[in-house]
User: What shape does this take?
Amino acid sequence: MATTKRDYYEVLGIEKAADAEEIKRAYRRLAMKYHPDRNPGDADAEAKFKEAAEAYEVLSDESKKQRYDQFGHEGLRSQGGPATHDFSRMNAEDIFSMFNDIFGGGGGRAGGRGQRARGPARGYDLETEVVLTLEEAFTGAEKDVEFTRLDTCQKCTGTGAKPGSKPVTCTTCKGQGRVIQTGLGGMFRMEAPCPTCGGRGKVVKDFCDACRGKGRVPTSRKLAVHIPPGIADGQAVRVRGEGEPPAMEESPSGEGVRGDLHVVVRVRRNEIFQRDGDHLILEMPISFTKAALGADLDVPTIDGKRATLKLPKGTQFGTIFRLAGQGMPSVRSGQRGDMLVVAKVEIPKKLSPAQEKLLRDFAVSENETVMPESQGFWKKIKDVLS
Assistant: This one.
């Protein structure tokens, strides 16, 4: 019986309209959360890690994504896509290395296993969030962020071995750190890190009691991060070198560089302004007399000052006025966008007798028929129709 697969968008926790960057960020978050390094011996985490890898492998490929959007999993089966493969049989680290573009240069490891010649091993990137008001996004801000990362164990200096003890040669790989693996019934052979020693060539018999042989321990960290003016909801600030050091299996020698920290910005909804790129939208309530006769309006701006809007006579509901340079600054250039003021003409719900008389006289001058003052009108209508 075929196994029912979850929807790939559901797996990554994104909407169908998500762009490539959102897809990449969602996968990176799940890969970091469920990676075997962080969940040793957790079969459920490994299954979710593989499921996320499969979803990303499809949704990050435009042609596969189009087939999947149109025909679902069946469309991929007919094309020999991931739906025809059994990801559950793949080694989790092999799946991870398939997508090292997510973690190399954009987050995580620079290059997968078997690619050490490209440069020193690189640790994982991390991701955290910070919340801003729209005003803080306008001016820029310094924000404290707190997060937890895995740091090199100080007690064993990252070896995982109890101080004073020595690792012994791995019997699986005979100290080479690499083994030959076969797949698809022996149709292909590939070299991979030894699953016993993790590529180190040696195994620890007496574990460090501080890190329990992992070589790294969770550490709380607090940083002050500069958020540039104009940053938008969902954009991220990269803090270089504040990620994790390479794991032991990635760098048996203990050498390598830390990953980065990605601080994703969330901007709270503003009660006055709506944002559209670098532009701001303000729905401005206007009395119907000002709309009819024209007026000079004081308009609030995001910087706390006031701008003057000359409202012409006969302004209609929904008319849009542009105040140049009163929007948000561009993160790249610093140049400010515009503010779009939408006229929301308000009709009074209650009128004084004097106001009502004035309006009735005005209606007469326009030869307009309006609701009569006397409720006897309906009796007159009934008499006419009878």
Notes: Residues 83-117 have pLDDT under 50 and may be disordered.
